Amino acid sequence: MKEWTREERYRVLKGPEDIRDLYDRIQKSVYRQTYHVQPITGLSSDPNGFALHKGTWHLCYQWCPWGAVHGLKYWYHVTSPDLVHWQNAGIGLAPDRDYDNRGTHSGSAISIGDDLVFYYTGNHRDEDWTRTPYTCAALLGADNRPVKLDQPLFGPRDDHSEHQRDPKVVWNEQKQRFYIFIGAQRLDKRGCVLVYESEKPLEGWRFAGELKVPGYESFGGMWECPYIVNISGRDVLIFSPQYTLLPGRGESTNHNVYLIGTMDYDTLTFTPDGPYRHLDYGFDFYAAQGAASIGDPDKAILIAWIGLPDNHYPTEEEDWEGSLSLPRELRVKGGKLLQTPLAALESLRGAALKPNGTLPAACELEIACPDGDFEIALFTREDGSGGLRLSYDAARKACRVDRSGMDKRFNIPVGEVLDMPVETPLKKLRVFVDRCSVEIFANDGESTFTTHLYPTDREFHYTATEGVSLRGWEMERAVTDEFVV
Hints:
With 485 residues, this protein is an all-beta fold. The protein has two domains: 6-341, Tachylectin-2, Chain A (5 Propeller); 344-475, Jelly Rolls (Sandwich).
């Protein structure tokens, strides 16, 4: 594995020709996705700037152009008419100002009249590498590229650590003002959220206070990517706690969770109705962000990074890594979130799978489950050995997912076996496979499980116990992957 120097990781991209050869090379990878957003080169991580504006969906991802390494971060911009078909639009934000000289880090967007406004963290570092995070903004220009404001909206607070980032903007109709929620860390290394408010989107921002979440005062060491949304009259708080081990999650210290409760903007208190739940139970799901301005009070649209901050993946050897999850519709039912794939994804269905026990590299599967215990193994060898094994235990109401039988194993110390709990008997699974990722939706979105997976040439078979019924389709291309910088 390549050892990257700081100078290599923090190089400035001077023009398209700096990465043209890298782009051409990684196009030959057998793991390039078919219908998921992925990096044009290098590393993609957090989804950013996700919003519907004048009939077009805008989405960016955090991007390091040079390879599968965290270094100088850009935003790369993609657009879609339908959340299914995506086109590359080029660099969204570049670290070209003093206040973001070492990276344009994660943030959000909101559509306001004729303007699409982006909010992001400007990562400034001094010569001694001391970090100062600024909250910055940009407006979508006539050429479909964001144009930055000359100055940040505001700087960091010195009563918290340097970890202050990921501004998520929301408009509160009752209060008639905008709020920015920022992931932060207290000086005693406990995670929290800082709240700012303003009546105008690009000026007058003032510190409102720290978000209070009773019972979660010492939950994790940093809360990344906070997001509050109201769905059908219920408030949902989604965030990514870091630097902590959680029960049943192996050795991972990065998570994505949610709470359902009530948000009081007068006291800046989010009161949970019950304990936290995992947004996704898979190995590789993080930094989820909801789309702004969708205009439907009964649902949200969510997308996440398929990956984790400290993990490593086999495509690092090819100098690229990462992709974004499929957009999901979120609804609240029975005190929990239901997450379902978009109905429009059915437009990508091609030829039906033949019942011969083999799987295409990009496909959708619908699985009807029998009563009681059962097992399904995807991407096995021809003799049925190995593969991604899903074992349902009816007594425990949990489906165990084990990827340790694959030829390409990775992140072994973090863990290769996790449970996906379900509260009702498991009756159906919907599985989306795309060359290096698998997304599983159980019981119409009651639980979900996302993982990277890198099958080799001999691992395209499947097996299932008696009573399991499987049908599926090859999936057509939905991401252009053109060289646009």
